[in-house]
Amino acid sequence: MRSRYCRTLAIGFAFLIGTGGRAALAQESPELPSKARTEGEPTTEDQIRFYKGKGPGRGNSYVERYEEDYSYLRDPARSSDFFDPLKFIPLGAEGEVYLTLNGEARFRYDNTDHRNFAIATAATPARTAGGRPTLTPATEVSTNQLYKQRYALGADLHLGPNVRFYADLYHGQQTGHRVGPTIPGNQRDALGLVNGFGEVYGILGDAKTGFRAGRQEIFFGNNLQVRANVSTNLPSPVFDGFRAYRDWGPARVDAFAYNLVQFVDGILQDRDNRHVNLWGVYGSYDLPKAAPLGLEAGTSLEPFYLGWRASPFAGGRGAGIYNDRALLTGGRVVAATGAGFIASQDHRETFGLRAYGAIGDADYDWQGAYQTGSYAGLRVDAFAFNTDTGYTFHGVPWKPRLGVHIDRASGGADRTGGTLHTYQPMYPNTQYYVPNNEFAPTNFYDIAPRISLAPTETVTAEYYYSWLWRYSESDAIYIGAPWPGAQGQNNYAVTALLPGRSIGRQSDFRVTWAITPHLLALGEIGIFYPGSALRAAGGRVTTFLDANLTFKF
Fold this sequence. Notes:
This protein is mainly beta. It is built from four helices and 25 strands. It has a single domain (about 1-550), classed as Porin. The chain is about 5% helix and about 50% strand.
């Protein structure tokens, strides 16, 4: 894999010379707005500027603290915030060497009634007279109440205009009712190094160019393919590897190669997992402004290639590969014991294109992806698409936005051709679909109307109602966290042997309040009504409550 990294980086550097793009930030739970400047200083008289990680699309938040730029505070007269003295700490007379500090404290309460829908956790090989497998019902899942605390401290050291080092440490605590015998490492850890990298960068020709190496949490595009989950105490996944970029302002391209950082016995390790790899190229380009029908319009395109590989028994929690033999033979599926795993490798090559922008008051964010590769000796032929379209009534009180999500991802298998159609979403933002990570975006299609309101400048409210169905009844419904493709086991694996097209219906209401520029409150309630496919496995109505208070500086 090391040689593949070298080849990928060499191709990426060649690609940097002639292609454009922009890496995006996360569309996770709403975060506090960042007042840090996210564009570089002008470098010529005609005001060339660089994005430096500026998040494209609607509603992005600056989750990546290492992309914040406070170099403008070199001028003390521009200081306007109580914490500004911590954002630019000069370590030399000229101010070229300086330190930026950041921090976070978050308190969160979760209450889940009928976790994992209280679904049956296993199926025996024998079938009943009615043709269905014998089920083993789930136990001790009626209520799951969790109290979470997260603390983070980061430092960004700039050694002149071309070299920087960034690191942050996270500490998470979790207690509550029916927490479980083992607390996952992304919920509780003594102290975890989430980011720790060095970067060299500068202006080469007409573009900002950089190379970054070390541990990183990453976000690309609309985060439906690769992102770090920041809703957990420790952001997960975290990667060790390399990233190179070239940024022209309206265009940017990133090339990268990573190994997944290891979790062992619930602890984030100081070593990577050589058996789980991610590599690729991500680009973005802003099309020239247009005015169709007299309406101001802007569009950005993001082509991308993502390579992903997970070897069997890669070590640590959830190390194996889920056994999809049920798709081809109707054979045994055991979801909760690990017996449903096989000694095989999951290898995916994903090619996609995202288009997003606005035409007047209408906005859109559409993405399609095709996936090939191999799994357990089967050829992969899969696809997925996501669309978020809406219209904001800016001249109406509370500025309501009416929108809809329409999504689809393939599933199932060709029984005669040896082809697997189950799409591998890798590291998706599952909260895009349901609020509590109970569902993974594969083998499904949905429609989700939604409305959002802004009663004040600091308060937003959103409600949506989703209908979800299975793409293929011969394939399982998949749990959202962790995804079973070398990340964990699928608690809903038994659904591969059960009939039913409907996955269920999701109702969700969320309110956020930016109390101050540094303090954010969030409350959310979701209710999931299982459809025929989950009810056949014993699924029950699930409610989810989330309340959290976040302080950042």
